[in-house]
Amino acid sequence: MKKKTHKKIIITNKFIKHMEVHRNSFIVPYTKLIDICNNDGTFQNLTKSLEAFVVEFPYNIGFSEMVEINGDEEVFYAKRIGRSIYTKFVVGKQNKEVNKCVICLKQNQANNKEYFLITMFPGEYTVREPEDTTIKDITTLKATLKFWQNHALKFDLETVDTSTIVKECPYKHSMLIKINQLKLQN
User: Fold this and answer.
1) How high is the pLDDT of residue 3?
2) R_g of the chain computed on alpha carbons
3) Is the pTM value of this prediction over 0.85?
4) Are 18 and 104 in contact (CB under 8 A)?
5) Position 91 pLDDT exceeds 60
6) For residue 155, which phi and psi values (nearest 5 degrees)?
7) Are 129 and 28 in contact (CB under 8 A)?
8) Judging by DSSP bridges, how do beta strands 62-64 and 96-98 pair with one another?
9) What is the spatial distance between Cα 140 and Cα 128, in angstroms, rounded to a whole number?
10) Rounded to whole angstroms, how far apart are CA atoms 73 and 70?
11) Higher model confidence: residue 135 or residue 58?
């Protein structure tokens, strides 16, 4: 019989501070969801340096902030509190209750049996935002840009730094430059 490898999940102060943005999105406290995942073995098959996956629960655990848009809605861009990149928001859409949670972890470079929690939120999308600095290839960047053309986060005044709100996409020109740079690298 093969022995199960135990993975340690590390909750840092940075993660706790980051999760303040998602506090109102959860019906079930995120700490309880982490405990459930630890106890049911969800974290035992981690192998990659960066893991992002969706966990499905038998009951609703929160509200998805990600909504589809068709182009007729009022959208704007702003930085979420505690974030350095712009996010696309939409006004007037409703959150929906979901039984799924996205969890992102990063492997500890000093110990491959340990993972740091990076983020978690109710929903089923794991697409990065266009300004995410971890995007290093043209295919991922194009897929990210395509996804965000038809999606936005539901506006929540408590999570947005209102001093950063702009109507026009603030990264449109920098994305063109990044696309050209990535094309040259490949």
Assistant:
1) 44
2) 18
3) no
4) no
5) yes
6) -65, 130
7) no
8) antiparallel
9) 9
10) 7
11) 58
